[in-house]
Amino acid sequence: MHSCIISLAANFEAEKNLPEARMCLEQILTFTHYTDAVWTEPIGCKLKNLYLNQLVKASTTLSYEDLRSCLKDIELQMGRTPGEREKGIVRLDLDILAFDDERHHLADWERHYVKNLLPQL
């Protein structure tokens, strides 16, 4: 069993997309614990919509690569496309911040909302 921390973010239909994403994550993760969801200002994004962000700490039997692949599949199922990304529309972004003892997306660890939400895990 592996432990992981995953960030969830959306700036388009976020109040609909994050709960749907959580339902999808429940299919591939166990022992999930979610932080509160918080609104944040966009960083370097063409679309100036606020982002709804949340973290989840969980366990999985999947390898890092298999988990990453599943997360990308969930993003696609939720309607994420490269064309929308270019316009700044983010229906859903799922990133593995930690897998077992290894950190990923190192710049995200410095973001204010991540630092504020981590104590909730």
Descriptive account of the structure:
This protein is an alpha+beta fold and 121 residues long. It has helices spanning 14-25, 64-77, 82-87, 112-117; strands spanning 2-10, 30-34, 38-40, 51-60, 93-99, 102-103. The protein has one domain: Alpha-Beta Plaits (2-Layer Sandwich). A hairpin with a 2-residue loop joins β5 and β6 (102-103). The two termini are 18 Å apart.
Structural class by sheet pairing and helices:
alpha+beta
Task: Determine and state the CATH class.
Answer: Alpha Beta
- The gross shape turns out to be globular
**End-to-end separation:** 18 Å
What's the domain count? 1
Q: Do you know the CATH architecture?
A: 2-Layer Sandwich
CATH topology: Alpha-Beta Plaits
- Largest pleated sheet: 6 strands, antiparallel
Average of the residue pLDDT scores: 94
State the share of residues found in helices, binned by percent.
25-40%
Low-confidence stretches: none
> H/E order of the elements?
EHEEEHHEEH
Supply Rg: 13 Å
- Counting DSSP H or I runs of 4 or more residues, the number of helices is 4
CATH level 4 superfamily: 7,8-Dihydro-6-hydroxymethylpterin-pyrophosphokinase HPPK
